[in-house]
Amino acid sequence: MNTQLLLIQVFNGLVNGAFFALLSLGLAVIFGMLRIVNFAHGALYMLGAFVAFALGQAAGIGFWWALLLAPLIVGAIGVALERGLLRRLYGLDHSYNLLLTFGLTLLIQDAVKQIMLTRYSVSSAPYTIPEQLVGATNLGFVFFPTYRLFVIAFAIVICALTWYVIERTRVGAVIRAATENPTVTQAFGIDVSKWVTIVFGFGVALAAIAGVLAAPIYSVEPYMGSELIIVTFAVVVIGGMGSIAGSVITGFAVGVLVALGSAIYPPIANTLVFVLMALVLLVRPNGLFGLPEAR
């Protein structure tokens, strides 16, 4: 593999890594704070893409407004799911949450499939790249699609802001306290249930952001999150369950690993992720960046 092809594959990997990072970040936030294994995360990622598409079809809302509104709408759906369903399972074995969110995955996917077939008469729909990001940018060694560079940069900004808010601000301190020691936090007059809902909704909104960003690249279809979520769970395990920084770093690294594997020997590209996961777990059972709270 020559240097130019290697660099192209690295950038392609960073694009996929951006989606892995955003999705695994949402999973890490939800699990690290709430100890909920949200198997519906992939379906909610798809829902973000579908809502962006539906907003465009129904009201002519373009990419930029959809990038704001779709995560808010899907985040609100996440809040409703937490309030109406997941909250009833707190204190029970994690398998109950897993089974519920798996059921929600099937329900969301089938609902979107039926809506697309009956209302739009398609099973998969393209989503237009915004005019400002059409074309390619000269990186010196190759012309790379401008939109894909935007995806990388935007994902890095969102991940960095999330880490900063949770780890370095008073709001983040309240969130961590409310979820790690709810009894003491409640004694200080803080409404713990409100913060639990906010954290879950925020984690879901991160998945929706990834979905909106992915729509112009992969198109919108009901099962677009099915395979991606499996790799994302592997990313979370490799990085360390509940580790925000670990999820982001590992997400981008896995994206690059898969891209390089695809260039060298395509049949093993996706397998590499799970080989890496097995090796990491043998050496560090808590993941590369595993936090004590998540052990």
TrEMBL record:
Transmembrane domains' residue ranges: 6-29, 36-55, 61-81, 147-166, 195-218, 230-258, 264-283
InterPro entries noted in UniProt: ABC_transp_permease, BCAA_transport_permease
GO cellular component: plasma membrane
Molecular function terms from GO: transmembrane transporter activity
Pfam families: BPD_transp_2
Entry keywords, A to Z: Amino-acid transport, Cell membrane, Membrane, Transmembrane, Transmembrane helix, Transport
Major localisation: membrane
Topology in the lipid bilayer: Multi-pass membrane protein
UniProt subcellular location: Cell membrane
GO biological process: amino acid transport
Recorded superkingdom: Bacteria
Entry keyword tRNA processing: no
PANTHER family: ABC TRANSPORTER ATP-BINDING PROTEIN (PTHR11795:SF442), BRANCHED-CHAIN AMINO ACID TRANSPORT SYSTEM PERMEASE PROTEIN LIVH (PTHR11795)
Family: Belongs to the binding-protein-dependent transport system permease family. LivHM subfamily.
Name of the protein in its database record: Branched-chain amino acid ABC-type transport system, permease component
Organism: Deinococcus peraridilitoris (strain DSM 19664 / LMG 22246 / CIP 109416 / KR-200)
